[in-house]
Amino acid sequence: MNIAVLMGGISAEREVSLSSGAQCAAALRKAGHAVREIDVGRDLSALLAALSPRPDAVFNALHGRFGEDGCIQGVLEWLDIPYTHSGVRASAIAMDKVASKAAFATAGLPVAPHRVIAPSDMVRGDPMPRPYVLKPVNEGSSVGVTIVRERDNRPCHLAAEWPYGDRILVEKFVPGRELTVAVMGENGTSRALAVTEIVTDHRFYDYSAKYADGGSHHVIPAGIHADIYARAMDVAVAAHRALGCRGVSRCDFRYDDTEGEPGSLALLEINTQPGMTPTSLVPEQAAHLGMDFPALCSWLVEHARCGP
């Protein structure tokens, strides 16, 4: 097939996307596809020109706003070009943490207590008992995420300089361990791959822990209580289906076992455009089940063309 790989973009995750896109393009070539790489910028007309002649499918390796939130998906729908990962609706809901949490709660999935405030509300005092987490509503890769702990005097300062719009998601901090589960497929064909525990020496799994060399390491399969392992797999599939995701998604969890096992699980968010380098979490889980990186990338474009 003739595949166009979209990469780069204009979000805070541009560099991550360039890395994902380059390695996905190499994997697709290895799998036998003809590939052209498109560095997406602000000029939509340039993108339209780069998509001519029309490819058989687009591999969407964009991350963050405009690439992961339904915008580029809408453009590709308009052009009637098949593309990898989730569609407009699922992408838009997943990127909006408030909307996705509402969908998860409606589906009966475990989410941490949370609320939405304006940055100016932080001046009035803590929006919930400490510790809690401040998050941008529509950024990925832990961009802007901050934990407010006891004796921390930063909240007012953070609010005064908040650069991520007029809403802040405030979420109860869940102690314990970081887990993630990849899901492949669509509707009744979707299945969870594995549970990975992410271990880091950082205060939490922030942007640096995700992408810096040695920032974290992954334990697959996660060495956790069997009931929680099974529960994480089930919740990830349910979240994928609740939003109508397709292709590949990845659900991130906090697992609180601080008072002993089996403990409790909290679904944080779903990623409809998870990192796609050979050492990223989703490719690692696929490899754990015997699917190498070129095969995974090839499956994604074939799924985009043919459906489940």
Structure notes:
The protein contains ten helices and twelve strands. It has 308 residues and is an alpha+beta fold. The chain folds into three domains: 2-84, 3-Layer(aba) Sandwich (Rossmann fold); 93-111 and 175-272, D-amino Acid Aminotransferase, Chain A, domain 1 (2-Layer Sandwich), CATH 3.30.470.20; 114-172, Dna Ligase, domain 1 (2-Layer Sandwich). It has a five-stranded antiparallel sheet. Strands 4-7-5-6 form a four-stranded antiparallel sheet, with no helix packed on it. Strand 1, helix 1 and strand 2 (34-40) form a beta-alpha-beta unit. Helix 1 (14-30) packs across helix 10 (293-306). The model is unreliable at 204-212 (pLDDT under 50).
Terminus-to-terminus distance: 18 Å
Series of H and E elements: EHEHEHHHEEEHEEEHEHEEHH
Number of contiguous helices: 10
Secondary-structure content class: alpha+beta
Mean pLDDT over the full residue set: 90
The total tally of domains equals 3
Quickly name the level 1 CATH class of the largest domain: Alpha Beta
Please name the CATH topology of the largest domain.
D-amino Acid Aminotransferase, Chain A, domain 1
Q: Taking Cα atoms only, what radius of gyration do you get, to the nearest Å?
A: 19 Å
Helix content: 25-40%
The amount of beta strand, in percent, is 15-25%
Strand order of the largest sheet: 10-9-8-11-12
CATH homologous superfamily assignment of the largest domain: ATP-grasp fold, B domain
